[in-house]
Amino acid sequence: SSGSPRVLKNEKAESKDLKDGLAASARKESVIGSVQRIGSNDIPSKSTMGGINNNRQIRLRRRSAFPSTDASLTSSPSKKRKRGERRLLPDAVSESRGINVGDERIRVIITGVQVTLRHKKMIDSIGATLVESIDDATSATHVIAGDGKTPLRRTPKLMICLCHTSNILHMDWLTQSSKVCKPLGCDDYLLLDDKCAETTYNFSMQKTLKNIDAIRKSGRSLFFGWSIYICKGVAGNKAPPLHELHLIVRAAGGNLLSSIFASATK
Questions:
Q1: Pairing verdict, β 227-228 and 255-256
Q2: What is the pLDDT of residues 124-157, one digit of tens each?
Q3: Among 20, 143, 167, 220, which residue's CB has the most CB atoms within a 10 Å radius?
Q4: pTM confidence score
């Protein structure tokens, strides 16, 4: 016989709850089984790892071969220097390498004294450059012309350098500078007390340096406005070779004449 509507409704609700409970239990068992299957296979084999690593390396190589064009991922390019423009060093580096005011590297020339490996190492220790060729003598900023053992000599290098710098020094300047690994001031090491050389050449180094300083400050040079012709037989005969004589005249601002009949303006 048919029951009342309230009884049928209760039975349907109980049947639905039973079905939902069975479905939830089934899902739980399915999840547990999946977890167990994953747990038994979560450690990859060596062959699998090798394949992963190989694939990763291939991807990395491809990325390096085709770098990203994203500006945020790449460093900004350095500013190109104009042709002939010098690269300036940072202040800390400049100071440690013996750079003078205006970023001019100290250039040392040694004349009248035999240059040794020890001298070269001392020059390097203060961050300076050794000028060895007479053709570059005009670029020297410091001239070592005596060591206390041999008298000062009036060499072509010294004559050229006198036209461009007053730092005519005793070897002690280089020795003491190398001890502190930086160039010292020059005032205490000027070669002013070589009485033997001053007597031989009849001059005063102190007056020479003072006069040349005054000429340089005037904006002129020692041979300014002079045209000079070197006669045959002069060069090499108790005088420097012709090439060195030319360097001395040019360093002093003179005009060299190739012929005694040449115009003084050429």
A1: parallel
A2: 999 999 999 999 999 999 999 999 888 899 999 9
A3: 143
A4: 0.60
